[in-house]
Amino acid sequence: MENLKLQCHLKKYLEEQDISVRKLSEEINERRDTINDLANNRDMNNRRIPASLLAKLMMYFDVTLDDLFTLIENNDKES
After folding, report:
1. What number of H helices and E strands is found in the chain?
2. Domain containing 19 — which CATH number?
3. What angle do CA 28, 30, 36 make, to 5 degrees?
């Protein structure tokens, strides 16, 4: 299981609905840096994502966790 990681598809939903990271962060009252990191899959191996943030994203985009994330093989050399 060490060679698996989450891939976030938030960027796809932002683009489909033409919503900026800034607008989303303001509307769901979450840090813009956190939203940006998720949208760009930054540091996903070490990230802890609060359930409250996941719930907000699922409600905002009317999606499930399976829509937001995919489990993929980790090809990073550092892991």
Report:
1. 5, 2
2. 1.10.260.40
3. 105
